[in-house]
Design a protein that fits this description.
By secondary structure, this protein is α/β, with parallel strands linked by helices. The protein contains ten helices and six strands. Strands 1, 2, 3, 4, 5 and 6 form a six-stranded mixed β-sheet that branches. Strand 2 (21-30) and strand 3 (33-34) form a beta hairpin. It starts with a strand and ends with a helix.
């Protein structure tokens, strides 16, 4: 499965006011593994950058003046993301701007949904952590991901950080270290008694292949590095 983790920076918050994209950053996941096939472009928005937006990303109209237009890189961008699942945090914002740029560039595609599918990590986070802050910074803190380099928002850096957040949120590992409120629910579910049919057939045992064992070990090493508490599996195996 090919997924593209995507982020944009813009001149402001609303395309209805003519705001444009000034930066696109993408990183690629192939079967949940980060590759080196990134896509990163600064863009000339052909308009001023609002003060509030500049405070967020630090990209001035002067810096962007000699950068290509979206229309100049549009075909390259479409080729890069075509057929992939786009993973974004607060996807309607980025999708709205990308669709707007496609329309301004008179693309043959009416919108992003014409050549990609979209997955919103903000919706996922809100479902997993209802009533909590689910900004990218908040999720980094919750999942123990280092975002100390994020003094300003940058599309490529944010895409890389979001890739780590997404992998952690969808791995199931974090539930092992859930806060006390979640552990109450787990204990309650374990108190439900289940009876097994004594005449049931024996369970079939399927041994893991060497490639699967290698992939499992690689994932444990990633979790060991990204979590302040390390991977629980390793602690269980060592008896600590």
């Amino acid at each position: 499965m090919r997924q593209i983790i995507l982020d944009t920076e813009t001149t402001g918050r609303d395309t209805a006011e003519g705001h444009r994209i000034v930066e696109i950053g993408c990183v690629e996941l192939q079967d949940r593994r980060l590759t080196s096939n990134h896509f990163h472009r600064y863009l000339n928005p052909q308009r001023e950058v609002e003060a509030g937006a500049y405070e967020v990303h630090g990209l001035s109209a002067q810096f962007l003046a000699d950068k290509p237009l979206f229309a100049d890189i549009m075909d390259e961008f479409i080729e890069y993301v075509s057929g992939a699942q786009l993973v974004m945090h607060n996807a309607p914002f980025d999708v709205g701007f990308l669709d707007y740029e496609l329309s301004l560039a008179q693309s043959e595609y009416p919108d992003i949904a014409s050549f990609c599918t979209v997955f919103d990590t903000l919706v996922l986070a809100s479902n997993k952590h209802p009533g909590q802050r689910n900004s990218l910074d908040a999720l980094c803190k919750r999942y123990g991901i280092d975002n100390s380099q994020r003094e300003k928002h940058g599309a490529l850096l944010d895409a890389k950080i979001l890739a780590e957040v997404y992998l952690m949120m969808t791995s199931g590992q974090h539930s092992i270290f859930a806060p006390a409120t979640d552990s109450i629910q787990v204990e309650t579910s374990l108190q439900v008694k289940r009876t097994l049919d004594p005449n049931r057939p024996p369970l079939r045992i399927i041994r893991a292949k060497n490639a699967e064992l290698d992939a499992h070990q690689e994932r444990l090493e990633e979790l060991e590095k990204s979590s302040s508490k390390g991977a629980l599996w390793n602690r269980l195996e060592s008896g600590h």
